[in-house]
Design a protein that fits this description.
Hemin_uptake_protein_HemP, Hemin uptake protein HemP, about 25% strand, about 70 residues, alpha+beta
């Protein structure tokens, strides 16, 4: 006999918003906020896993993860 245990959870299915993301993790068709410049991460990375960005004389490393997320480190 099988009994249901209160408080157990099932994995949540992916929503359509989650499924409609680009390889970089951005929502499909997402635009930058008004008044901000937008640059596609693919243009910055140019096929590489990581790129160095110099901001105010300080180098930062922008890298893409296997899951399509971005990490910016100083």
């Amino acid at each position: 006999m099988s009994a249901s245990i209160a408080g157990t959870s099932q994995p949540t299915p992916r929503t359509s918003a989650m499924a409609a993301t680009s390889p970089t993790g951005a929502a499909a068709g997402a635009l930058p906020a008004a008044g901000t410049a937008g640059v596609d991460s693919a243009l910055l990375l140019n096929g590489q896993k990581a790129v160095t960005i110099v901001h105010n004389g300080t180098p930062y490393r922008l890298q893409a993860t296997k899951l399509g997320k971005l990490i910016l480190t100083k």
